[in-house]
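Write out this protein's structure.
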Amino acid sequence: MTNEHVVDESLPSVDNTEEKQGIWASILRDVKASTKKAPATKSLVVLGDNESGRTTLIAKLQGDDDPKRGAGLEYHYIDVKDDDRDDTPKLGVWILDGDVTCASPLLKYAIKPDTIENTILILVASMTQPWSLLSTLNKWITLIEEHIDRLKIDPIRLRDMRDHLQYDFQHYIEPNESSLMMMSSSSSSTTIKNGTTNNRIPNSLSSVSVASTTTPASLNNTDEQVVLPLGEGVLTKSLGIPVIVVITKCDTMSTLEKDNDYKDEQFDFMQYHLRKFCLEYGAALFYTSVKEKKNIDKLYRYILHKCYGYLFPSSAAIVERDAIFIPAGWDNTKKAEILLENLHRLKPTDHYSDVFVKPPLQRDNEVVTAEDDQEFLARLQLTLNRASSPGRSEETSSPLLTRNSMTSGANSGIGMQTPSMPGRPRNPTSGSVSSSGGGGGGSGSGSAAANEGALATFFNNLLTRKAGGPATPTTTVSSTPPPPRQNTDNSVVDSTNQNSQKQQEQS
């Protein structure tokens, strides 16, 4: 009896051990299966003009405050933060050159035929130039369309990609408490089975919006996704890949109000056209500001949701004009047309380029290159010399020339004489004096004033000879008092001629 009792007691212990080992083995197998299944490699392709804030935006998404700027084709990656996984994925980021001609040949390295399904496109435009927003977006989206055509993807495969994008767009439901609780419960109940974490959507729901209340069972029961008819102006130019339109530097909207006199009416008109563009491609719309940290964290979580299916509980935001967020699938034509009700001076049919006109260039914005110091000083010296030369010529030669021109018409003999510069010695002859005297009597005060320098030199020579010294010409005219300039009669000239004749007789 004792042995039987011992045996009977030992049997249950063996069964319990096997049961426990089976439970742990099942858990280990599930964990091992989940760790083997690594997330798919995803990539972002960022396009935009130079100075649009592309590199700064990606650096902010990386958590880096010091962006590394490059040229051509840049490659970065974003660490996906997930505490429940050891093998956290790295999201690759391609940033193309801001010039279309340079970016076009490099696009083949970022978007390839075998990876196009795992690509998300981000179009960046800056609010600092609102007149070029639409043209910038159309320019880059046209480049992508041309590149996809060159890839020559199988038409059936491309149609499946577009149907998948359309299905996601049409099955978007606004997040609320009930939908989030349902998604959390469905996600947690299938965590081990599908190999996902508690913060992620099950693999069967990765293509559906977070806010969708569709269960995994309902998707698995249907082999094909049901594609519903589209509304007017929706997904008319679908690329088959998700698109996110990001308007950067929205903190400058207040500056646009002051400088360009923009009102809320203009900003509503701008938002309406941007939303129409997004509806055509099934894109999401973000107004961001790195300076004021607006919508940066929301953009990061939305990218992870689109790439890896993480929960995204945020709903659309259209109240703050500089922090607009419209997820793909939320908007439609009727919602966008509500903005047109606020237009008073503008008309819905107005062209975007007529409402937002590029202002003329201001001198403050022009780049001025400093001139070389030596060239500037040489040019300044030349200018000073030119400015001072006419003044000296007027002080010296101009009076003599003016007086000579006055006497040239009255007496040809005096006009033939060559005027001398002040301070230049001359040796006039007696003939010249007699002719000057005769001419002075006939020409009046004009001839006397014109020949005052010659007469003064002649008198000095006579005085020097009378004293017995050699005849030395004077070097300056200022030593003798100037004769009177104005005289209505010829008395001064006659007295001067008489004195000269007496002196000649005495000599």
